[in-house]
Amino acid sequence: MIKTWEQLKGHSEQRELFRRSLQRGRLSHAYVLAGPEGIGKRQFARLMANSVFCREYELSELQVCGECRACRGFAAGTWPDFIEIGVPAGKNVIPISLIAGETTDGKRGREGLCYELSVSPQASDRRVAVINDAGLMNTESANALLKTLEEPPAHSLILLVCDNPDTLLPTIRSRCQIVRFFPLNEADVQEILLAEEIVESPEEAASIASLCEGSLETARQLLHPELRKLKATVARQLNQMEGMKPLEVAASVTAGIEEMSSNTPEQRQNAQWLLRFVADAIRARLQGLAGGDLSDPLTQRLGARNGVDLLAPMLDRTLAASRQVDGMSPVKLVMEALFDELARMIRQAMKRA
């Protein structure tokens, strides 16, 4: 768990934006932290809250010491002036009970996030609330929060974390300042993957970082055991040259994608990742040939020129398959056609060699 700003990768511009606002005394009462999933928005929000409470630094410095009573209490999850909510386990929305309390026991308006914000701080100058996955508030929840945003307590700071601000009610967006966050760079992703021991080697970290588009959540999806097994299967088949068994490969790949996918959109996303693996493997071989690397078994069998003549059309065919999946073609049919065509290309190239 990230406990200091120095441990947070990226987002230095966003931090500087908040620091300037603090130095000018222009901190707003509510912000939307918006950007792709898995890039550190929640950690940023928590560091913002911790900075409000830290007693060793002025708030305008936007820093945390990690050692004072407030920082220790915050890290332990016991600091009384911090409220954090999100989608409850097993649910797909943020219910109004978390925002304004339950109705069944007469506590509506006397508990929940809005009530907690209205109470005077117990140990700090402000109360800070973080709403994770804020775009998943239902209509009741959003309208209840809107009342607090319209008349915010003077001692409050509300941070709404979401992937897309358009999922929020326009009336909520209009009462918040939107701060946009962007994907992490590949070097930062590699460092995090290795530091948190998510991958086993620098080579694997580099490979995943190049594919995950700056999102640790996407990186974790790419490391799904079933997807890794499918990647290994495809790599092994591509290395067999004329021995590739296209129908077996397509059947194995399709079954694996279906097993690890809970719905059709997820199935298409996993199919796209697999096609990306195939394209990257072919592209890496092409780059090796362009750089004069003649150690690849394909080059040894075909020669550099014939290798390029084979690999370039294979890459084009794989990219075409990706477009077909985007175009809503059945994943199974796309995979069968792709691997059949790749096997045919390899057999023809071997005959010409």
From TrEMBL:
InterPro entries reported in the protein's UniProt record: DNA_pol_HolB, DNA_Rep/Repair_Clamp_Loader, P-loop_NTPase
Keywords: Nucleotidyltransferase, Transferase
Signal peptide positions (record): none
EC annotation from Swiss-Prot or TrEMBL: 2.7.7.7
One Pfam family hit: DNA_pol3_delta2
UniProt GO molecular function: 3'-5' exonuclease activity; DNA-directed DNA polymerase activity
GO BP annotation list: DNA-templated DNA replication
Lipid biosynthesis recorded as keyword: no
Stated name of the protein: DNA polymerase III subunit gamma/tau
Species: Fuerstiella marisgermanici
